[in-house]
Write a structure and sequence with these properties.
Blueprint: E1 22-25, E2 28-31, E3 39-44, H1 51-62, H2 64-69, E4 72-78, H3 82-92, E5 97-100, H4 105-109, E6 113-118, E7 121-126, E8 129-133, E9 139-143, H5 151-158
Parallel strand pairs: 3-4, 4-5
Antiparallel strand pairs: 1-2, 3-8, 6-7, 8-9
């Protein structure tokens, strides 16, 4: 579960410091700010075990060594429980961090929680969005309305990392 820390979402933009948040990393609490001096991919996704989320996780997992070689951490954030994340990580062999945001506190700070439409119905939920954070904790790129397939390659290219 993620703990809320103060942030003004009205100022969330490229060049601004990414809002800090705390999440469970195994049995210990970890903060986004613990990764300063390293680049970080923070990606928001709707739900573990769904088709799009599984595709996105599988691609980040397949490319994880490329990110790791460049010293880049990956944190996936969704409203699922920590227990669900553990099952998802085990099934998908996910080597990076998954943060539980049950009450959508962090997704609201990042502006990723909002109105969604599916098959003519509107509802509130997490919109698939990715933030690239530099070594100083500043947002350097925002991907909105992410399509899961091919997204890991987009992120690698944004960091100027060879895809193939």
């Amino acid at each position: 579960m993620i703990n809320e820390e103060k942030s003004d979402t009205k100022t969330l933009a490229i060049g601004r410091v990414a809002p800090d948040f705390t999440f469970m990393n195994g049995n210990k609490e970890t903060k986004l700010s613990d990764f300063r001096k390293r680049k970080v991919v923070v990606y928001f996704y709707p739900r573990d075990f769904t088709t799009g989320c599984t595709t996105e996780a599988a691609e980040f997992t397949a490319d994880y060594d490329k990110f790791k070689r460049e010293g880049i951490e990956i944190i996936g954030v969704s409203p699922d429980t920590q227990e669900s994340h553990e099952k998802f990580k085990e099934k998908m062999k996910i080597p990076y961090h998954l943060a539980s945001d049950i009450n959508n506190v962090v997704s609201k700070k990042y502006g990723t929680y909002g109105l969604k439409k599916f098959m003519g119905k509107e509802y509130m939920g997490v919109n698939r969005t990715t933030f690239l954070v530099d070594e100083d904790g500043k947002i350097v790129r925002i991907f909105s309305k992410v399509k899961p397939q091919g997204h890991s390659n987009q992120v690698l290219e944004a960091f100027d990392i060879k895809v193939n």
